[in-house]
């Protein structure tokens, strides 16, 4: 065991959710295993959902304006079925599911938006994912949110989104965030 593995550190529920969400998004950008992504992002969303509910706020997936009405029932069904399937084997240990990885996008989008609604600071990875989705998958996001994200994105940046692979886009964007942060242009 190395020294870092033996160190104890404090982690809040919200910090755990943010870390899980960032890890899931990074895996998604790298075309990682969709089942692992779903398990991570599902766990993150459950924590975020529970904190949101504890504060007596509407659940984003089922009640929020972020998901288009015509996709709401489909999203709910995907999220419930597969997340529970990947977490438990007590009722159906030999079960098989027909997994649709699109649910990963919904968990990530709704998790990020709920963090924002709760007044939580979102990470560079989460913000980059939101921008990427606004340009590449706007059909899953309300027009209002797409317009806001596109308006906050520099014009030359938007061309890059569509012309590089998503893994390269994440790398370039994180480097740009680091430069802007060192220049004091972003927090």
Task: Give a structural overview.
With 187 residues, the protein is mostly helical. It has one domain. Helix content is 69%, strand content 0%. Helix 2 (13-29) runs antiparallel to helix 3. It is globular, with a radius of gyration of 17 Å. The mean pLDDT is 86.
Which structural traits does this protein have?
mainly alpha; 69% helix; 10 helices; globular
Strand-helix topology:
Layout: H1 3-6, H2 13-29, H3 34-54, H4 60-63, H5 69-87, H6 102-117, H7 124-136, H8 143-151, H9 155-163, H10 166-182
A few lines on this structure:
With 187 residues, the chain is mostly helical. Helix content is 69%, strand content 0%.
Query: What's the end-to-end separation, in Å?
Result: 36 Å
Count the domains: 1
What structural class do helix, strand and pairing data support? Answer: mainly alpha
User: Average pLDDT value?
Assistant: 86
